[in-house]
Each structure stands twice: as structure tokens, then as C-alpha cells.
Write a structure and sequence with these properties.
With 94 residues, this protein is of the alpha+beta class. It has 3 helices and 2 strands. The radius of gyration is 13 Å and the shape is globular.
């Protein structure tokens, strides 16, 4: 969940049985809000405080990629291209 911050999407994914969830955001305070809200369930999530255009993921690491409007706010063409490259590389085929 890119730009997940304090969103409740992670709560819903956990409730539905999703595993190996990663939530990324620039705002540490927003991620901490989610962690506090989830309590012990927060330990089932990987939390990344990072800029999506700078973070490195393993190839084919994710089955699903959710963007909470991060791409929309990337004003620089170069950042948009880097983002798309990250999505393409990090998603599993199919």
C-alpha cells in the first residue's frame, strides 16, 4: 500500500486474511498512527518510511500493488518513470 499512511486499508486487508502486507509512506507519524490503531496486529505488517522513487524492492516481490494517490502527486516526469519501473519490477507476473 504505497502512501498508506493512516489509512484503514491495512486493517481491512488483515481482516480478510491477506499476508505479507507492506505499507509505505513518507510520514512516519501517519504510519505510527496505523500501528497504534492495529496494536499487536501491526507486527504482521512491514512498515516502510520511505520515498517510493528511492526505495528498492526485490524483483517480483508483490502480488498486488495499491497506490493511495502517490503517483498522482509525482510532478516530475523522471519520478513518474522511476515509479513505473519500480511497479513493473516489483510485481509478480500475471
Amino acid at each position: 500500500d504505497v502512501g498508506g499512511g493512516a489509512s484503514v486499508l491495512v486493517d481491512q486487508l488483515l481482516e480478510q486474511g491477506f499476508k505479507h502486507i507492506t505499507v509505505l509512506d513518507l510520514a512516519e507519524a501517519a504510519l505510527q498512527k496505523s500501528q497504534v490503531r492495529l496494536g499487536e496486529l501491526a507486527n504482521k505488517v512491514t512498515w516502510l518510511i520511505a520515498n517510493i522513487v528511492e526505495v528498492e524492492f526485490a524483483d517480483h516481490q508483490f502480488d498486488l500493488w495499491h497506490d493511495r494517490a502517490v503517483f498522482h502527486f509525482l510532478a516530475e516526469h523522471n519520478d513518474q518513470q522511476r515509479y513505473l519501473q519500480k511497479v513493473t519490477a516489483a510485481l509478480k507476473s500475471g
